[in-house]
Structures are given as structure tokens and as C-alpha cells.
Amino acid sequence: MGGGITLNDFLVLSLIIFSLGLFTVLTRRNAIGILMGVELILNSANINYLAFAFYGGGQYDGQIFAIFVIMLAAAEAVIGLAVVLAIYQNFKTIDVDAAETLRG
Amino acid sequence: MLAQVIFYAIAALTVGSAALVAFSRNIVYSAFALLGAFMGVVGIYILLAADFVAMVQLLVYVGGILVLTIFAVMLTAGIGDVKVSNRAVGTGPAIVVAGVAAMVMLYAVMRTQWHQAAAFTPAPTTYAIGNAFLGDYVLPFEVASLVLLAALIGAIVISRHEVRE
Amino acid sequence: MDHPIAVTFIRLIVALPLLGAAINFIAGAWLQKTFGKRAISFIGCGVVIAAFILAVEAFIAMLRIPPENRFMLDDLWKWFDVGGLNLDIAFWLDPLSMVMTLIVTGVGGLIHIYSIGYMHDDDGYWRFFGWLNLFTFAMLVLVLGDNLWLMFVGWEGVGLCSFALIGFWYKVTANTTAGNKAFIVNRVGDLAFVIALYSLFAGLQAAGHATLVTREVAKYAPLLAGVPINFAGYQSAYPLVGFVTLLMFIGATGKSAQIPLYVWLPDAMAGPTPVSALIHAATMVTAGVYMVARLNFLFSMSPFTMGVIALVGGLTALFAATIGVAQNDIKKVLAYSTVSQLGYMFAALGVGAYAAGVFHLMTHAFFKACLFLGSGSVIHAMGGEQDMRKMGGLRHKMPVTFVTFIAATLAISGVPPFAGFMSKDEIIWQAISHGHPLVWAMLLTGAGITVFYMFRQVYMTFFGEFRGTHEQEHHLHESPPSMAYVLIALGALSVVGGIVKIPEFIATFKPFEEFLDPVFSSEVTRRITEAGIHSHATEAAFGVVTFTIVVIGWLIADLMYRQHKLEPARFSQMLGGVPYEWVYNKYYVDEFYNRVIIQPYMFATRALAWFDSNIIDGVVNLAASIIVFLSWLSGLFDHYVVDGLVNFASNLTLDVGGRLRRLQTGSINGYLYGILAAVMLILLVRAVVRA
Fold first, then answer.
1. Are the Cβ atoms of C669 and A96 closer than 8 angstroms?
2. What is the ipTM of this complex?
3. Domains of chain A, with CATH numbers?
4. Does the domain at residues B1-108 carry the CATH identifier 1.20.120.1200?
5. In C, which residues are within 8 Å of B101 by CB distance?
6. C670 → chain B, closest CA residue
7. Cβ–Cβ of C680/B101 closer than 8 Å?
8. Model-level pTM?
9. pLDDT tens digits, C512-555
10. Which three-class secondary structure state does DSSP give residue C81?
11. Which end of chain C is more exposed for a tag (fewer CB within 10 A), N or C?
């Protein structure tokens, strides 16, 4: 890629998104919010893969892996949201602080 | 030059959307910001000559997951109640942790001598990926499809049980 | 003797009374209730009479056989074959057992018939006949058994039935005590007998012919001549045959009531009178005599034992007669008389007059049974009274009883031509003939005393004034026909029964002795029996002497008790009344036995019982206590140590679990931090390790 965009740039971008995602995961109380944070983290990982794939000489291994990640993210999102809905049914809220009946 | 501009623009979009997702008080705002983040990521992918992956990202993430998320949001939240629908707690430690993580990773990125190959001419990747999926990577491919099946059934089971009760 | 005739009817003679006993015992109570006592009478007497008929048939058949071959064997089955001892259940009919069988079934049958009338009012009628039948069976096994062990089975069996019948009216404790006494005293004799059998068998086995079959013992007995006792390597100087025969005689003293084991017979009068007649006069007590006669070949080999037998027999004859003089119970007089007469039989055997002894056995069965049944008749008429001092003048009220009683008394007194004279006179003569003057003197004196007490009894009972109460006087009556006819039959036998063996100085007519000759035909026996004086003149002279003594005895009794010219009290005052006291109290023999034997035995019993309950049980209890203590300790261990460990483990788990539980905050946020921390840690570790 011409124009002087280096690998590092992509990596930094990726890590910023990762940090934001991490922050979301750690602070949000809304269950769906947490899941959104997880999606951000996964996306940042994908960017990483693809960046290395591109700057490693055009191999497509990274791309294949990124596709797998997307696949699994989808599966995980499905189940996560199903669980969220189930929790909503039981607790009438999706505030994760409310769902603490398993506390010891 | 143009590339850099495009890059920074897309990067800004992405980061900005991600920030919205992280800091917004309204879950719906977060959900839609997520759309922006995903779109930004699609742009990044294209920049990285991953056309197929970008399309997949668009279809699956935006078309599937995002929609699903918004469904969930709509179904569950008291969205009329703006203030409490997406509160954030414990931001302090979270900032610290995220910050530390970012610092560490930054350090790692900066200090490492990444092996970089020569530039190459981007080419359409679909063909190659398709071959790989049914060639070298056929096993993970099949297993992944099983995982999806399991997720499907699991989701049905979870939601079905709750409805029953 | 080696080739007996094989027959199969002897078992019927034995089996019929057994069948009667079985029916009476098993179904007797029901039969009596349903059909009345008639049914029991029919069965009980029927089997014995049938056995008698069979015995008579056997006798007739035997007479047709020439004398040397008069041996019949009925072999039923193999009894056991153990350690060299090979015995069958088999019945042996030779002249001796023929005579005994006829006596047992004949006299026994008559007594069974008598019992119909005598026991008529008793509710235990079926039990009585059951035991009588069983006794007859056992007695027949005794006399017909072909081997000594089978004989011993019968020996024990009659002892058992005797015990049961003495204590027949068991609700009165005194009766059962008398039964116990009979059985226990018998047992002492039985012990001696059994040891004798063992020793005999051991001796025969050492000589190479291990057997207890009587005819075989007879054949091989001479092998034991001079053989000393050899017990487990210990060789004694005493001859085995003497030891065996002596012990056997001790057994006989128990069964046949001689000194020193006669003490049970007078007490046995507690049983019903038919029992006294059958068992303690005619049959069981004669078992000892039969045994000695049967084993004459052994006894003849031991002059020492023969001497002991003669002496004991003579002494008993005299001793018992003296006691009989002072008794007031009508049955006790007859009991001591029986002991005395048995002494005569043994004395005869002891001096070697085997045939005479057996002859006296037979005549004694006739007249003693008649006397006992007559006394039963008197007791029945007196409503149960047995004290002669309360009787008197009964001859008017009970003529049949009186006549038969007199006949039997004359017989026992030895008045010719009654049966007793034939046999008793013979014995007294044989005693002196074989050279035993002391025994002869004892027997002679005994004869005189016998006459005395018998006529004392007759006069006190049947003559003079009635001395009982008015009710008893009104109750006096003659016995019913079933009893009267039996008395007549026995009385007749007492008169003519002696015809089969007349003393030689009168006439040579002794079919009885000739009949029994094959039994006493072994060499040793012949030597003894044929010894002795054969002069008829001497015999006649001694016969006169005997008769004189008899007359004197009668005269004294007559003067004292009929004419009342002599006062019995004056005689008893002699020597300060001491002789009378002694005689009346049976010389305090029972008291002596009690003090010397029974008390120490009971003491030893109690001591052992104390030992058992305190020491042995104490040890057992101690062991138990130790075990309980150990188990208490073990329980402690279990409670504190084992449970402690288990509890500790569980408490630890609960404790740790309680603490760890707090990790489950339920806060998803917290979990996420946790995951993050873990990931960071892993990365850190990896980075460090890499470095």
C-alpha cells in the first residue's frame, strides 16, 4: 500500500479499538452493552490478523482466520443474546448487577 | 497521500464510533454507534486488500449481528428511559486497566521489529479463500459449521425453555 | 448248635407285643374314649395271648425235633458291623429261651387278663396296657436275643418299663421316687454288665474270634481259660473270665435284686399290683437268673465267681427272709419274699445246679404271681388298704382268693407235692450235694423263716377277727371273674406245676431237666453239674430235714398268729427289742446307702454345680466382659479418631468452601475483571519465560 501507511499504524488502530472494547466490557452494566464491547474486541483482533496478512506478503492465511473469527463471533453473539433474553424474562431487566442470584 | 487521508478518515470514523459505543449512556446510541464502528472496520479491511473478508464482515456483522443486537435491545430495554438504560460503573479502574493494557501493547508494537515482506499487488482473494476452505482448511471449516449448528440449537433451546415456563 | 433251623415265626412272637404297645401308646387315648376300655383290653391282652399261642406252637414243634437239634434261629437283619463286632437282629430259640418265652407270654398273659379287672377304674388304662405290652416286648427281646448285646437292649428295656410302671400313678411323688430308685440302682448294675461285655469282647477278639453271639461265645469260651486281664498293655494276674463273670453277676444283682442292689424292689411295690406280679416276681427280676443260666459256660469257668454267686444268693435268701418277718404291708412281705426266693435261684446257679435254678424260676413265677395277684385281690376288696393289721377273717368273704392264696403259700413253703417243694427242695439238696455247707445252712434256715412269714401273712389276713373299719367291712367282696379265673389258673399251676421235675429220691422223672440239658451241655458245665453226691438215700435224709424245718416254721406261725398262744411281742422284746427294730427297719440298709453313697454324691454334684455356675460361668462372663470392654475401647477409637478424621475433613471442606464461595459475587463485572487479570497474568508469565 503506498502512501506511507505502515503496519504500525494499523496495529495502533487495532489496539485503540481493543482498549475501547475492553473499557466497554469492564464498565457497562447493560448485558448487551458488554456484548458490544466483546464485538469490538473481536473486530480489533481481526484488523490485526489482516494487517499481518497484508504486510506479511499477501498471504491469505490471516484472512481465512479472520473469517473464522467472524463466524464464531456470530455464533457467540447469537447465544449471548439468547441468554440475555432469557435473563430478561427472569429478572425483567438486563442490568447485570441485578442478575446476581448465584452469589455465594 | 490520498491513501493516508483515507486511512485516517476511516480510522477516525472507527475510533469515534467505538468511543461512542464505550461512553454513550443510551444503549440505542451504542448500538447504532456500533454500526458505524463496523462500517469503519469494513473500510479498514478493504484498505488491507481483504475484499472477501470485508464483504463477509458487512454481511455477517452488520447484517446479522448488529441487527440481532438491535432486536435484543429493542426487546429488552426500557428505552424510553434514557438515563438508566446503559449506565457505566467503575469507570476509574477500567480506565486504568484499559490504559495500562494499551500502554503495554503500544510498547510492544513500537519496539518489535516486525518482519515485513515486499509490497505486492493486491488481487481478488475470493478464489484463493474458497480453495483454501475446501482444501487445506476443510476441517476447521466443517467444525466451524458444526459449531454454528450447535449455537443455533442452543439458542433455540434456551429461548424455548424460557417461553415454556 | 452250629446248624440251627432257620425259621421266621419267632419274630412274630416278639413283634406282637410291640404292635400292641405301639397301638396303645399312639391311639390308646382315642380308642379308650371312642370305644371304651374294652378296645384296649382286647388289643393289650390279645397280642400277648396270641404270642403265647405262637410260643406253644413253637414248643410243640420243638418237641418233635430230636434233642440235639433243638435250636431255631430267626435272623431278621444285620444290626451293625463295626470294628470287628458283627451283630444281627436275630432271635434264638433253644430249650432255655423256650421255657422263658412260655413263662413270659403265659404268666404275662394271665396277668394282662387280671389287669382288666384290677385297673378297671383307672383313666390311664391305655397307658398301663401300653407299658405292659412294651415290657413284654422288651422281656422277649431279652430272652430271645441271639447275641449278648441284643440281650442287653432287652435288659435296658425292661428296666425302663419297670421304671414307668412303678411310677404309673405319677401324680403321687413317692411313686415316681420309687421308680427313680429302681432305675438308678439298676443302672449301677448295668454299668458293671456293660463293662463285662466290653471285656468279654476284647478278650474274644484277642483270642481271634471277635463275637458276641451267644452260641459262638459258647463255642469259643474255652479259649479264654486261664487268660489274664489285659487292658491296654496292663497285664493283671486275675483271670479275664473271672472278671467278666463277676461284673455280669453284679449286673444281675441289680436286675434281680440281690445283695447289695436289692433296695429298689421293696419300694417298687408302689406300683399297681399286676406290675408287682409280672415284673417284680415272674419276669424282670428273673432276667439275672436267665442271664447266668444262659452264660453257664462262662460262669462254670470261674469257680471264684460261682462261689460268690452261691454265697450272695444264700445270704440274700436268709437276709431278705428275716426282714419279711416284721413287715406289716401285705405287698412288702411278698417283695422281700421275692428277693429271698431269687436268692435261692442264684444259690442254685452258684453251686452248679443250673437246671434246678431255672426250675425254681418257673415255679416261683407261678406261685409268686398267684400270691401277688391274690394280695391285689385283697387290696381291691379292702378299698386300697394294704396294712395287714387292719385285715383278718377274709377267708369267709373271699373264698376263691383264700383258696388260691393258700395253695400258693403251700407251694412257696416247700410242702410236697406242691410245685415249690419240687424246686426248693432240689436247690437245698444241691447246695449240700455240691459241697457248700454254709450255703446249705443259710438256705435251710431261710426256708424255715419263709414258711413262718408266709403263714403269718395268711393268718393275719384271712383268719381271725376283722380288724378294719366298718366301711371296709361292708366293702369286702370277692374279685370279679377276670381276676378270679386268673387266680385259679395260677393256683392250679402252683399245685401241679412241679410235676415236670420230681426229686430223684422219690422218682426218676425229670423231663424238665432233660429238656434243658442241651443248654448246659458244655464241658465245663457238665463237669460241675455232674459232680456232687448222687446217693438217693442221702438226698432223702436231707429232704426229711428240710421238711422238719418247714413244719417247725409253720408251727410257730400257727401258734403266734392263729391260735394266739405265743405272743409275738414277747419275742420282739428279746434283747431289748433291738433285733425287732433292726428287722422292722430293714437293717437300716437304705439309710446306710443314703449316708455313705447318696449324700456324698449329692454333695459332689452340688460342688460341681457351684463350680460350674461360679467358676466356669465366671470365666465365660469374664471373657464376655473383656470383650465388652474391648469393644467399648474400639468404640471410643471409632468415635473420636475415625469420626474425628472424617469430621475434620468435612469441616475443612466446608470451611474452605465457605471462603471460596465468596468469589461467587454474582457480579458479571467482577468476573470479567477476573478473566482479564488471568489473561494478563498468563501473558506476563509467557513474556517473562520467553525472556
1. yes
2. 0.87
3. 7-91 (1.10.287.3510)
4. yes
5. 680
6. B90
7. yes
8. 0.65
9. 777 887 777 777 777 787 777 777 777 788 888 888 888 888 88
10. strand
11. C
